[in-house]
Amino acid sequence: MSTSNKVPILMYHSISDSKNSLSLSVDKFYNQMNFMKKKGYNTINLNEINQNDKNKFIITFDDGYEDVLINALPILKKFDFKATCFFVTDYLNLHNIWDQHKNDFILLKTMSKIQVDEWLKNGMTIGSHTSSHKNLQKININEKISQISRSKNFFKEEFNIDVKFFSYPYGSYDNETVKIIKKYYEFAVTTKRSRYIKDKFNEYLLPRVPVNKNDSLVKFFLKIKTPYEDIKYKND
């Protein structure tokens, strides 16, 4: 195995005091970012993941919630951190209706095009989370291509940006899906749990470290600085 540095790719969704299971409180997010700054960490983007510099980490947000702009962005700017937000392009300025089958479903507002532009103007990065958040393992190849390509085309048409980053909805993919992703994107993140280790993971199946609403700062430390995620979930 490579002895290169292990890079935690943090996975967040909503940053708010909502009771939604995917929402991390604003205070906890602040404390986590403050912790990373005090430990000498700096953020990089996915395309910089094979740098040899120590103490690098990546911040990602799935779904593109409005509260990420309102609550997380000021904190990111305070600590001079950058982050990538993955958007569901058909549902900008709407809500997370793809989660409505969940027993604990709570409505969350997504960013509008104007807010996406504000995210970009503040030095942040965007990625695709498909056009309508469908499970890519459960649809045919034509639907897969549509879900994967339409979201990329949207950002090219609306923002003149060639989006290079992708996040699999629900963390679900198959070999057919990965082949399509390789045609449209350069990096893709999963929900497989581990810090990134060069030569162990490829750029289209990058693992992440999920940050959960009940995680204490001690557990956050374990996920970032120790093999906790690498070993505990190595067979996932």
TrEMBL record:
Principal localisation: secreted
MF terms in GO: hydrolase activity, acting on carbon-nitrogen (but not peptide) bonds
UniProt entry tagged with the keyword Methyltransferase: no
Classification via InterPro entries: Glyco_hydro/deAcase_b/a-brl (IPR011330), NODB_dom (IPR002509), Polysacch_Deacetylase (IPR051398)
Gene3D superfamilies found in the cross-reference section: Glycoside hydrolase/deacetylase (3.20.20.370)
One cellular-component annotation, GO: extracellular region
Domain NodB homology: 55-236
Keywords from the named record: Signal
Matches recorded under Pfam families: Polysacc_deac_1 (PF01522)
Biological process, per Gene Ontology: carbohydrate metabolic process
UniProt keyword annotation of DNA repair present: no
Subcellular compartments: Secreted
Family: Belongs to the polysaccharide deacetylase family.
The protein's role, per its UniProt record: Is involved in generating a small heat-stable compound (Nod), an acylated oligomer of N-acetylglucosamine, that stimulates mitosis in various plant protoplasts.
Protein name as it appears in the record: Chitooligosaccharide deacetylase
Species this protein is from: Pelagibacter ubique (strain HTCC1062)
